[in-house]
Amino acid sequence: MAWIKRNLIFVIGGILALGLLGAAGFYNYQGWSHNSAAFDKLNGIYGTLRSLTGQKPSPGNEKVDNIAAAREQENRVRDWIRQAGDQYFKPIAPIPNTGTNAVSSEAFAAALRRTIDQLQHEAEANSVTLPPKYNFSFEAQRDLVKFSPGSLGSLAVQFGEVRTIAEVLFAARVNSLDGIQRVRVSDDDANGPQADYFDSHSVTNNLAVLTPYQITFRSFSPEIAQVLAGFASSPHGFIVKSINVQLAGAAAAMSPETAGPMPYPPPPLAAPPTTPLPVAPGKGGLQTVLNEQLLRATLVVDVVKLLPKK
C-alpha cells in the first residue's frame, strides 16, 4: 500500500494503459469481424456474378447489355399484343349494348326476341335450315320478363357472342344448323333444355377470358372450310379448339352418347346422289367420279376476350 501511495501516478497511468489496450483489442476484433463478413459477402456476390456470366444467355458485359435487350424485346412483344388486340381481338358487343354492365330486364327481353327474329330471317335468306322455333340456346329466357338477379350482364355478353357465331355459319351457307351450345351463366338456365348447354366453363388467364361454345351443323366439305375460314378471318378472337366431322347419315345412326349432342331432330334435307355420276373421260384420261356426301360437323370454339389494359 505504501508503494502504491508513493507511485500513485504510475499506478493510475498503468491502469489507464491497460484499459486503452483492452479497448484497442476489442475495436480491432470488431474491425476484423466486419472485414470478414464483408469479404464473405463480396465472395458471394462474385460467385453470383460468375454464375450469371456463365449462363446462356448471360446478363452481358460492358459491350453487350442483354438485360436491356430483353427489356426491349418485352416492349416489342407488348406492342404486338396491343396491335393484335386492336386488329384480331375486337370485343364482341353484348346484346343489348348499353355501354355499361347495367342491363334491365325489359331491355334484354326486347333485344332477345328482336334479335332471335332477325337471326331466323338471316338463316332463311342464306338457305340455312334451323330446328323448328329455334331460339339459339336461349330457350329458357325466350318467354321470361324477369331474369335471375345478377345474370343479365353475362347473358347479354353470351347472346352477342352467339349471334356473331351464327352469322359466321350463315355467311358460309351451311345446309342446316343443329344447334349452338353455351355454358350456363344463370339460374334460369337450369330450366332450359339440356341441348342448349355445353358442360364446360370459362377460363381466365393473365391476358384474356376464354369462353367455349359447341356448334353442330350439317354441310358439305366446302362449307366447312368456309366456316373455319370465317372464324380465322374474323376481327374477333375465335379459336377452334376441336372439330369432329362424320357422315351425316352415320351420325344419325349412332347413339347420342357416341354421335355427340343432337339438340333437335335433323331437318329434312335433299340428300345428294349416292350413285357416282360418271363424267365423260378425256382422251387417254381416267374416268372422273363425283360422290360428295353430306357431313355433320361439331366444333368447339373459344371466344377470346382480352382483359382490360392495366
What does this structure look like?
The protein has 310 residues and is α+β, with helices and mostly antiparallel strands. It has a domain at 90-260 and 293-306: Alpha-Beta Plaits (2-Layer Sandwich), CATH 3.30.70. It is built from eight helices and seven strands. Strands 1, 2, 3, 4 and 7 form a five-stranded antiparallel β-sheet that branches. A two-stranded antiparallel sheet has the order 5-6. Strand 2 and strand 3 (208-219) form a beta hairpin. Helix 5 packs across helix 6 (221-233). The chain is elongated and about 130 Å long.
Record keyword descriptors for this entry:
single chain; two-stranded antiparallel ribbon; 310 residues
Beta strand count: 7
Report the mean per-residue pLDDT as an integer. 81
CATH superfamily of one domain: Ribosomal protein S6/Translation elongation factor EF1B
Q: Low-confidence stretches at least 5 residues in length (pLDDT < 50)? A: 255-260
Helix content: 40-55%
What count of helical segments does DSSP give? 8
Amino-to-carboxy terminus distance: 86 Å
CATH architecture heading of one domain? 2-Layer Sandwich
Provide the CATH topology of one domain: Alpha-Beta Plaits
What is the H/E string?
A: HHHHHEEEHEHHEEE
What class would the helix/strand composition place it in? alpha+beta
Our Rg estimate from Cα atoms comes to 38 Å
The major pleated sheet works out as:
5 strands, antiparallel
> Any idea of the CATH class of one domain?
Alpha Beta
- What general form does the structure show? elongated
DSSP strand content: 15-25%
